[in-house]
Specification:
Radius of gyration of chain B: 22 Å
Shape of chain B: globular
Number of domains of chain B: 2
Largest sheet of chain A: 6 strands, mixed
GO molecular function (chain C): transmembrane transporter activity
Order of helices and strands of chain B: HHEHEHEHEHEHHEHEHEHEHEHHHEEEE
Helix content of chain A: 25-40%
Chains: A alpha/beta, B alpha/beta, C mainly alpha, D mainly alpha
Organism (chain C): uncultured Acetobacteraceae bacterium
CATH architecture of one domain in chain A: 3-Layer(aba) Sandwich
InterPro entries (chain C): ABC_transp_permease, BCAA_transport_permease
Oligomer: heterotetramer
CATH superfamily of one domain in chain A: P-loop containing nucleotide triphosphate hydrolases
Order of helices and strands of chain A: HEEEHEEHEHHHEHEHEEHH
Number of strands of chain B: 14
Number of helices of chain A: 10
Subcellular location (chain C): Cell membrane
Number of helices of chain B: 15
CATH architecture of the largest domain in chain B: 3-Layer(aba) Sandwich
Helix content of chain B: 25-40%
Shape of chain A: globular
Strand order of the largest sheet of chain B: 7-6-8-9-10-13-14
Largest interface: B-D, 57 and 61 residues
CATH class of the largest domain in chain B: Alpha Beta
GO cellular component, one term (chain C): plasma membrane
Distance between the termini of chain A: 38 Å
Number of strands of chain A: 10
């Protein structure tokens, strides 16, 4: 798939993104460019600013330094739901389903608010089929297993017909086989044209999946390139893999 | 627990469906032939319940006496009443029920203006003769010609209410030149303050402080200090029980001793208040409706109070019964006397009789004016004298709440300034 | 002295004393609402329940109200533990604290208020210790012992509480439970046990504040309604989880109320105080002393 | 009598299936038929008391349905129901005093003013955690109370009188007229609440109640939905209050801002079952009927005590309210 990406237009452009909490600098001077359909892995130790970056992009933090643009449109100042409708979907570290709604209803919500409310039920079923959850449509989220909850999150993201999906540790706590299932789903989604940013601690998954790897350490980007090259960099090994 | 609730629920729903079953006072009489049923709502819980319960006790004493005498018009008397919870929203419903479901012969009012007003439209709709208790100018708006109000304030509260207070002020050793007015935000106190303003202006007193306060006020120290710093000669306060105590406390703590202090405070009339404050009340000059002074020893009032006091503790009401109870009893006497003259339950005839006749009750003789208020207002201003402690016995005898105004009931001399002797 | 200045000075002093009472009343709430995230709107009602119990016991035994308040505090601690256990069992555990839990405390508030009316009648109750009628005079400033003595108790109790929260292991754990219950679990501390203890303390504080209230003024079953808006306002202004912030906000609230009452007239003081809160919620929701998010 | 008549009827509409299309016409026809049936039944009974009991309960149907739109659907607890209701009541009084316009225009104006108030409060606080909104509404009631008390034009603390006509032509009495007005308002309010619940807005509110952040992330405009709900909730609460001065002929701040309204607005939906339109209706009929019955039977503070216990027991043991019993576990 890499042959298409060279020519693909820029989808996400982050310029000098930074975020401070009081006096603490969580994130500083992040520049990242992502092309349409690209698969980017974002890694870094705990507290390196990965989730902070995601929250700046998704709009969960209303104020931050720098600019973020999706397909040429500036996102700064837009609320998360506006960004969502522009084609930016995300999943959460801990699955965040709508607890009082059935699985099907969960997936109908984004459809109802993305313009075409017509035939929302049928389209929601379609999304559930894509993540192989159609059989669980009538269940409540609390009746699902963990991997099923992850799938539900993905189905809800798929329902938004996103141009970019940010998967924030979508595989944490899953078994080897389950990780593979989720990876398959993500690849399928990517094949359909959605760019994916994967934030992950499971190195196997992230190196297997990504075309490109970005490394954060202490709120700064220290590397950006093909996975094998990036992982070979001494500073990455040093900082991230914790060489004594 | 759960099933109990459901069962209760069913029982109450049944209660609503049966409806007619009254929470009457004297079940014994409910069986007897054709009683005269007197219906009313009364504040037995909520903010006005203190006076509401005392009123009910007075009614019950009257009903027991009337029945012992063989009833009214030869028929036993039965009281049919519901608790209005001091919630005006419940009042119209209760009165409709009294008149349309319970089909009482006579309706009387709940206690005080805020509860009386919502009962008026319903009562007027059915053209019932309506004797109310301690309303304040309710009929100024409704202009209902079958409305009669048992309250000494009379027709023109603005011009008459505070007159006595300022008459007394005129007798101060040094003629007063300035006045301060403080009143709680409620209808009675505001009318009282309006009257005080009127009289202060008429007598050329400069009003140096004139403000209202909300009923939720916690600390009165800053307010009383602001009054103190304005240096008024005469202080007129319109307040309700919780605030009255806060104001008196603050005045005592700040050693605020103006020549005259008091006015239209509600609270110092009540036994619990007198027990708590004891000597702090000394030289307070306050509006009142009754004091056991020789000038007010109307026939029957002593007997009534004796009966009342034997039952008050058990009923958890005011121990002395010096405030509302005699008037509540007299309210029933008005009905009794009018019924006796008319000879039948005829609302129009009763109203006509009440307009025409003079009544002789345990609170004295009086007539009603065209609008149904007392034709001659009788606002008392009493001064607390010789109070050394919180013991209540002295309030049963003359000499503690000395009447200074009006002139015809006067029973003692003014002492000034306000505050404990020697302060 | 200039009379206006004197008024202002006295307004400030009486406001500080009043604020001390508010701080006492609000500090328990700062624990339950601020630190534990339990929206206990029955807090003022519990305070009044404490006040009534002080009046009844104090009158029967002829004891000083503040002494009774201190003696009975353990009982209210136990009551608080009971309430929290019910709350935890039915609401917190189920994750239904937001709506149902709020309604639960609303119901508790109502049950206490009406229960007091049924038990004691609607009228006000009082129990005046002898010093309630003494006023100190410091220059131009009056300090009634009726206000001062309860404030001293408040200062002592809140001081001890603050010290305990900052130095003891359990106290630190209470502070931590607000931040991160997970971290506690890692430290092998049961957050539920900590919350139960802290909630018990908050109810004991409510009852102590009730004892102070008895000295300040007579109480009625519905007196809590006067405080409910104020204590929540103070808690929010103080930045929720901060006890010193809560105390500072309470003192400020008392001063604003009394200075307004002195100069603009008492009828505007609640509107000024609560309008201030509304404004605050709009522009600085983290509170006067809270950290910016 | 009316209390027993209403209960089974409100249960009549079948519970909606999860994704079944919402049918509006049968509801409106059914509601209208129920309304007419109630009216005819009371007319036949011919007892004025029935109208007052009916009015009492129906005002709570309006109030608790309105509360439920924000509180039940979206999970934002409004403690200031009495404040909004009083806003409606005083708007009707002002309109009457200023222009002489009667009850019906008063209701429209009340909806507008209280709706704006809801919008403003929501705008100030709905960006924050839910509990801030709750406390803001608590304070709002205090501020409004103070304003009314200090506002002489509406009588301040002395209260305002409205001398109502003895009857309004086609109706046998003013009580019947008020009842019919309130009945229409109740049907309208329940209909609106139901339409909201089944609309996209209702689904969005439910989503943000469950998880506000996730709702935003999937494109739900949470703030806008909350503002719509707060406006609607305020407006309908104002509507519930507008006839109050006509009902009692006199209104003072104490009565308008009565605690009972705030308590019942919360207790009724919770006891009936939050989150669905039928819950508050059931809660209002049961609890309102119970209170009215207790007023004329037990007739003491015990009456209110029962409400408190019912609330506590229900939220603890039946968190989904009475409605939860009938729907079973889902």
């Amino acid at each position: 798939m890499s042959e298409g990406t060279e020519a693909a237009p820029v989808l996400l452009r982050a310029d000098g993104v930074g975020k401070r909490f009081g006096g603490f600098v969580a994130l500083q001077g992040i520049d990242i460019t992502l092309r349409a359909g690209e698969r980017l892995g974002l890694i870094g130790p705990n507290g390196s600013g990965k989730s902070t970056f995601v929250n700046c992009v998704s709009g969960d933090f209303a104020q931050h330094d720098g600019t973020v643009a999706l397909a040429g449109q500036a996102l700064n100042g837009l609320k998360p739901h506006r960004r969502a409708r522009l084609g930016l979907a995300r999943t959460f570290q801990l699955p965040q389903p709508f607890a009082s709604m059935s699985v099907l209803e969960n997936v109908r919500v984004p459809l109802l608010f993305s313009g075409g409310a017509a035939a929302a039920t049928a389209r929601a079923m379609g999304c559930l089929e894509q993540v192989e959850m159609a059989g669980k449509a009538g269940k409540l989220p609390r009746e699902l297993t963990q991997v099923e909850q992850r799938r539900l999150e993905l189905a809800r993201a798929i329902a938004m017909d996103p141009r970019l999906l940010i998967a924030d540790e979508a595989m944490a706590g899953l078994s080897h086989a389950e990780v593979d299932q989720i990876l398959t789903l993500l690849r399928r989604l990517n094949a359909a044209g959605t760019a994916v940013i994967m934030i992950e601690h499971i190195m196997r998954a992230v190196t297997e999946f990504s075309e490109r790897l970005v490394v954060f350490v202490a709120g700064r980007k220290i590397a950006d390139g093909p996975p094998r090259e990036v992982l070979a960099l001494p500073e990455v090994e040093d900082a991230y893999l914790g060489r004594q | 627990m759960h099933s109990t609730t459901r069962r209760d629920l069913g029982r109450f729903a049944l209660g609503a469906a049966v409806g007619g079953a009254a929470a009457g006072a004297f079940p014994a009489f409910a069986q007897s032939a054709n009683p005269i049923r007197i219906g009313f709502a009364m504040a037995l819980s909520g903010g006005l319940a203190g006076n509401g319960r005392a009123t009910l006790l007075a009614y019950q004493i009257w009903a027991a006496e009337a029945n012992a005498r063989g009833g009214v018009l030869g028929r036993p008397v039965q009281l049919v009443f519901y608790d209005d919870q001091t919630t005006p929203g419940l009042v119209p419903g209760i009165y409709t029920k009294l008149m349309d479901v319970d089909r009482v012969d006579i309706v009387t009012s709940p206690y005080a203006t805020a509860m009386i007003a919502p009962s008026m439209p319903v009562v007027m709709q059915r053209n019932m003769c309506f004797v109310t208790l301690f309303g304040a100018g309710v009929n100024e708006v409704f202009k209902y010609d079958r409305h009669f109000n048992m309250n000494i304030t009379g027709d023109n509260m603005k011009e008459t209410y505070a007159k006595g207070y300022f008459d007394v002020a005129a007798k101060l050793p040094t003629p007063p030149r300035s006045a301060a007015i403080l009143a709680v935000d409620n209808e009675f106190a505001q009318k009282a303050a309006e009257s005080a303003r009127f009289h202060a202006r008429q007598r050329g007193l400069r009003v140096v402080y004139d403000r209202s306060y909300p009923p939720s006020t916690v600390d009165f120290t800053p307010t009383v200090r602001a009054i103190q710093s304005a240096r008024p000669d005469v202080v007129f306060i319109g307040s309700y029980p919780p605030d009255s105590s806060g104001i008196l406390r603050a005045a005592s703590e700040l050693r605020f001793n103006p020549p005259m202090f008091g006015g239209g405070m509600v609270g110092p009339q009540l036994a619990a208040f007198q027990a708590q404050f004891g000597p702090i009340l000394n030289n307070l000059i306050n509006w009142d409706v009754y004091s056991p002074e020789p000038t007010m020893n109307f026939p029957g009032v002593a007997d009534f109070q004796e009966k009342y006091r034997t039952q008050a503790a058990k009923e958890q009401t005011d121990l002395l019964g010096n405030y509302i109870p005699p008037y509540a009893y007299a309210q029933m006497q008005v009905l009794e006397q009018s019924l006796a003259r008319v000879g039948r339950v005829d609302q129009a005839a009763l109203a006509a009789d009440m307009h025409a006749s003079e009544f002789d009750t345990i609170v004295g003789k009086f007539r009603f004016s065209a609008s149904g208020e007392w034709a001659e207002p009788r606002n008392l201003f009493v001064q607390f004298q010789n109070v050394r402690d919180g013991d209540l016995e002295k309030y049963k005898r003359p000499g503690t709440k000395v009447i200074l105004a009006p002139e015809n009931l006067k029973s003692g001399e003014l002492r000034a300034p306000y505050g404990p002797p020697g302060a | 002295m200039d009379p206006d200045l004197q008024l202002l000075l006295n307004g400030v002093v009486s406001g500080l004393l009043l604020g001390g009472l508010y701080a006492f009343a609000a500090s328990g709430l700062a624990m339950s609402f601020g630190m534990l995230d339990i929206v206990n709107i029955a807090h003022p009602a519990l305070m009044i329940a404490g006040a009534f119990s002080v009046v009844v016991v104090g009158t029967a035994l002829g004891l000083d109200p503040l002494l009774v308040a201190v003696l009975q505090a353990p009982l209210f601690y136990v009551l608080g533990i009971g309430i929290y256990s019910v709350y935890h069992h039915f609401f917190e555990r189920r994750g239904e604290e937001a709506l149902q839990g709020l309604a639960f405390f609303f119901g508790i508030m109502f049950i206490i208020e009406v229960g007091l009316v049924m038990a004691f009648g609607p009228e006000q109750r009082f129990l005046d210790p002898p010093y309630a009628f003494v006023t100190l005079r410091l220059g131009e400033i009056d300090v009634p012992l009726r206000m001062l003595v309860p404030m001293l108790l408040a200062a002592a109790v809140l001081g001890l509480l603050l010290l305990w929260l900052r130095s003891s292991f359990t106290g630190l754990a209470i502070g931590a439970v607000a931040q991160d219950a997970e971290a506690l679990r890692l430290m092998a501390i049961d957050p539920v046990r900590i919350k139960r203890l802290a909630f018990g303390l908050s109810v004991a504080l409510a009852a102590l504040a009730g004892g102070a209230l008895v000295v300040v003024q007579p109480v009625e079953p519905t007196s809590g309604q006067i405080f409910i808006g104020r204590v929540f306002a103070i808690c929010i202004m103080g930045g929720m989880a901060s006890l010193p912030g809560c105390i500072a906000a309470a003192l400020l609230f008392g001063v604003v109320e009394n200075v307004t009452a002195t100069f603009a007239g008492p009828s505007w003081s609640p509107a000024v105080a609560f309008g201030w809160l509304l404004l605050m919620l709009a522009v600085r929701p983290q509170g006067l002393f809270g950290k910016a998010a | 009598m009316s209390t027993t008549a209403v209960v089974p009827a409100t249960l009549a509409p079948p519970p909606q299936g999860a994704a079944a299309p919402t049918r509006h016409l049968p509801f409106w026809l059914g509601a209208a038929a129920l309304g007419v049936a109630l009216f005819v039944a009371l007319r036949l009974i011919g007892n004025e008391y029935g109208y007052y009991v009916g009015y009492f309960i129906l005002q709570y149907v309006v109030l608790s349905s309105a509360w439920n739109i924000l509180g039940g659907y979206a999970g934002y607890v409004n403690f200031g129901a009495a404040g909004f209701m009083a806003t409606g009541a005083y708007t009707a009084i002002v309109l009457r005093k200023a222009t002489g316009l009667d009850l019906l225009p008063g209701i429209v104006a009340a909806a507008a003013v209280a709706g704006l108030l809801g919008l403003a409060t929501g705008y100030l606080t709905l960006r924050l955690r839910g509990v801030y909104f709750s406390i803001a509404t608590l304070c709002l009631a205090v501020v409004l109370h103070t304003l009314v008390v200090n506002w002489d034009y509406v009588g301040g603390s002395r209260g305002a009188y409205i001398v109502r006509p003895r009857e309004v032509p086609p109706f046998v009495s003013y009580g019947e007229y008020l009842f019919v007005v309130m009945l229409a308002l109740a049907i309208l309010t329940v209909g609106i609440a139901r339409a909201v619940q089944h609309s996209r807005i209702g689904r969005g509110l439910q989503a943000l109640r469950d998880n506000e952040r996730a709702a935003e992330a999937v494109g739900v405009p949470t703030l806008r939905l909350k503002l719509v709900a707060a406006t609607l909730c305020g407006a309908l609460m104002g509507v519930a209050g507008a006839p109050l001065p006509y009902y009692s002929g006199y209104l003072n701040p104490e009565a308008a801002f009565g605690l009972a309204y705030a308590v019942n607005a919360i207790a009724m939906p919770l006891i009936g079952g939050v989150g669905t339109w039928a819950g508050p209706v059931i809660g209002a009929v049961v609890l309102g009927g119970l209170q009215q019955a207790a007023t004329v039977t037990i007739s003491s503070a015990l009456n209110l005590w029962i409400v408190g216990w019912m609330l506590v027991i229900f939220v603890a043991l039946a968190p989904r309210g009475i409605l939860g019993w009938f729907q079973g576990r889902r």
